[in-house]
Amino acid sequence: MKIRSILALTDLSVDADRAVRRAARLAADHGAELRLLHLSTGTLAPNANPLPRLQRRARRLARQHGFAVDVVAGAAASVDDVARHRERADLIVLHDPRRSLPWPFRGRRLTERLADRTGLPVLAVGPSSALPYARVTVGVDLRSGSAALLEQACRFKAGARIEALHVLGTLRALGLRYLMSAPHVRHARLREARRHALRALQRLAAQANARDGRVVPAIGFGAVASGILARQSEVQASLTVVGAGRRARGASLPFSSVARNLLDASTGDVLLVPEPAVRGRRPAPAHAGRSARVAGAAAHTG
Known about the structure:
By secondary structure, the protein is α/β, with parallel strands linked by helices. It has a single domain, classed as Rossmann fold. It has eleven helices and ten strands. A ten-stranded mixed sheet has the order 3-2-1-4-5-10-9-6-7-8, with helices on both faces. The protein is elongated, with a radius of gyration of 20 Å. 41% of the residues are buried.
């Protein structure tokens, strides 16, 4: 992932300011330009003008980091509004508030919709955003886009320890017959599935390690999102990278995505890399589709 320009979204809240600070640190690391765009969520007074506050924030960041910070004129009130600024961006950074809703009412998160709509990687900054990205967990499903996803994670943060994690869900990997087999047959099939997955992970790691040798393979078991979250907690990873737009066969909740479950429960930052970027497909143009309102995005049900 070559980051030359970062678009940081903010509604001028304290939580959004954490995301802006993370965006500034990433811009300094990558030598990228940073632009601030006001995200209209209805938290300001109706007649309040956010531009002066954004400009003051930009000047403070510029003095702190030693590079110019631009402010985008106007405000974004929909996903389509943000998508209109995608041409000059390689990464979108925002704070996407965590919500715990019953699964029938859970729709796509703002971060997911932005990744899908813009075709850009989107970084959702969590409550522990002050931590450096010393350890990064990359959830891979061993499909054709896994190598590109891992490569982008390696380029995202130089020097971080990268863990390529594949969660081996029993139903997905072994099938229904696995549950109907005798215990010794289940153990044998599980060991064989683990060997196959580990060999595939080792091949992926070998490709990525051609540069600096910091990628290690890891195997998890059970529900996909829960397995990633458990591993993230175990190794204390401050960043989790996952492909966006993939349905979670065997994820922790029915009819939901791995990305959504991670965004709901992760305490660290989550980077969503959309499938169009991984597979080389072009995203839809910015004018296509119906605008989805960002106001009240935390409670949006898709």
